[in-house]
Amino acid sequence: MADFLTFSNAAIAAVLGVLALVASYRALLTSRTPQGATAWILLILLLPILGILLYLVFGHADYRKFERERSKSDKGMFDMALETDVTHAPSRLDTFARIARLPVTDGNAMSLLVDGQATYEHVRGAIRSAERTLYVQFYSIADDDIGGALRDALIERAQAGVSVWLLHDELPFFGLPRRYKRALEEAGVRIARPKGPSRLLGPFQFNFRNHRKLVVVDNSVAFTGGLNVSKAYVGRDPSIGPWRDTFARFEGPVVAQLSLHFASDWMWATGEDLRDTAAATPEETGTLRAVALASSPAEEIAAGNLYFIALAHVAQTRLWISTPYFVPDRDVLTALRFAALRGVDVRILVPARGDHYITYFAAMAYFDDLRSVGGEVWTYDPAFIHQKVALVDDDICSIGTINLDIRSGVLNFELTVLLEGKSAASEVEDMLIADFAQATCVEVDLSDRNLIVGMLARIARLFAPVL
Question: Catalytic residue positions?
């Protein structure tokens, strides 16, 4: 009996060893970053049973197939945009246009929408004005009074004959109740959920999420920014408290690029081609140049990271970034530090308190890296600041969904609109000056913080590749 148990234990150990090696090899092949591969391999080899199970659920993905198929799905959209929007004059946005694989457009207008309640009212007003088409996309929608108001507005337009499409990235069992979606579908609203790469529990997708927020009305007016749809974004979630966020309204040819980004997401989710309804290019309505940059984990270039690197390289005198999460990729951090060493006024505005403890403490471990070369980190005191806004010098600004973290850089689908023009930059500057007036400059090194905070920050930084 003892010999049999010894043989059985040896056989189990051998099987686990083989499975651990196979899982480690798969992690080496499919992880988006070397740090991510290292983290998975260590977990699998040190704790093989737990590590293999976690990797099968959260790590393993047929990423290369996903990348090929998603890139093929996107190609037609980018080709169409390149055919319809052309500008030949040199622009400070040209680097971003190459990252976006789209041209810079002329003749755009932008207006900021600050904070939740006023933004929701403005967006719902635009939705109610729709006569032909409505594209609506949010990462999260709650079944509360804010989500209910959006549902009612979409139902009213659908019943009036407007074609309405809704994309919403939700997890099974944690998303909208069936009655909410049934009411929309019965009114004629088409609903879909974005897809990620194939994996064991595919619907439970914690990476490769579609984090974009976008509303396009009649291919003539578009909105994007940091807001999702729930009472939290108007400061009525007691677990978070007051909330600070920014959206923006766009008009002009850049709206066509935003429409095509939605159409690309919709085609990937459903197979339905919306190019016939999304292709119309709006007339020029302003003086701003603009390009819509939609980063994707299906691209090899890591456009989300390159976006921040380009901001740092283009900046000559000033680079102000407001982000809820500051967990930068090493290349991004190096670019920001080099900009500060060149004499650029580099400021990062982050929340004074976090909504996710790991990312909140991990950010503290990066503050000293930027501060040591002359950059500044400011913490916003009155509320949780969730806006994703950048200001470069006095002529470039960006409003969208891209956080300054590795998840936005390589793991999620994101969207931002970059604008060139002093009027837009001045509007963003005034807003950020008001935000900095309510913020505190970090002047304490991590080593001078209390022992527990320092320990938590250093431990949390170890998880940076997956945050």
Answer: 211, 213, 218, 386, 388, 393
